[in-house]
Specification:
Elements (H helix, E strand, L loop, with lengths): L1 E5 L4 H18 L4 E5 L11 H9 L4 E3 L10 H7 L18 E5 L5 E8 L10 H11 L6 E7 L3 H11 L5 E5 L9 E2 L5 E3 L6 E2 L8 H10 L12 E10 L6 E10 H5 L3
Parallel strand pairs: 1-2, 2-3, 5-6, 6-7, 7-9
Antiparallel strand pairs: 1-11, 4-5, 8-9, 10-11, 11-12
Bound molecules: fe (ii) ion (2 copies).
One fe (ii) ion (FE2) binds next to loops.
């Protein structure tokens, strides 16, 4: 079973390359499941019901979010109603939405997907390790393929989570930093791991936003709108191949597609 996690989709440029690429990638890379982190999909912050639907229509099977989950409040109802979009699982139980989802695949096996927020340089949330234990205990026993999108700032946090869950999940893949890391590997217990799968959006930017605006505000403290940038649009993500019967990872591969390559059908 081949699963792609697409890194943080930023604004219209990010959505555009997802719409161009996903149908082609599904075919070319024999993907059984596509998951996307869409926490920055609406003008760089949050996601709307219309964007949720557009991403699903483009061939994304399930959507994860992160610290920006509720930036567009109208997504609350979608989070409550739809079975294929989740908030982080270590939010309070009363927070709108679910912390995990079961996504069906063509061969009938469901894939368990959950998301957690790290606690280093992030808002205070419940312990992600305790939350991981809870989510895993709640997945049905016949759900062997289990994917965690760990939305965290620090690579140390990521590595601790990866080692903690080694052998209990198919993959621990990071999002949130918007920078792909070159540490993809399979741990001894069979869990695929990468600190961050990167960002899908304009890379001539600072984390997807206009360089001039972010630099000015950082240096002069004068507020400017952090508009989404427009150039050097790329899709970043990671493909994990998993043994569906045992749930262990067989391979992990970083994916980077430029807009030019996407236009030419790759
Ligand atoms: Fe993000
Ligand atoms: Fe984030």
């Amino acid at each position: 079973m081949r699963i792609l996690l697409i890194g943080d989709i930023v604004g219209e440029p990010g959505r555009r390359i997802v719409q161009q690429c996903v149908p082609v990638l599904r075919e070319q890379r024999s993907l059984d499941l596509v998951i996307a982190n869409a926490e920055n999909a609406a003008a760089g912050s949050g996601v709307t019901p219309a964007i949720y639907q557009a991403l699903i229509d483009a061939g994304v099977d399930g959507i994860t979010l992160g610290d920006h989950v509720y930036r567009k409040k109208e997504i609350g109802k979608t989070l409550e109603k739809q079975p294929n979009i989740i908030r982080p699982a270590n939010f309070p139980a009363s927070a709108p939405g679910s912390g995990s989802m079961l996504l069906p695949t063509k061969n009938g096996a469901a894939v368990g997907v959950f998301s957690l927020l790290g606690r280093v340089f992030m808002r205070p949330v419940d312990c992600p390790f305790t939350a991981a234990d809870r989510v895993l205990s709640e997945f049905p026993d016949d759900v062997h393929v289990r994917i965690l999108d760990f939305h965290a700032e620090a690579t140390s946090d990521m590595q601790v989570m990866g080692r903690y869950l080694d052998g209990r999940v198919s993959a621990v893949l990071g999002t949130h930093t918007h920078v792909a890391t070159a540490d993809e590997q399979i741990f001894s217990g069979g869990t695929a791991f990468q600190c961050d799968v990167g960002m899908t959006g304009p890379h001539l930017s600072i984390l997807g936003r206009r360089i001039d605006r972010v630099v000015e505000t950082t240096i002069r403290f004068w507020p400017t709108p952090f508009d989404v940038a427009s150039e050097d649009v790329r899709l970043h993500g990671t493909i994990v191949e998993v043994d569906p019967a045992r749930g262990c990872a067989l391979s992990i591969e970083r994916l980077a597609v430029t807009e030019k390559a996407a236009r030419e059908g790759a």
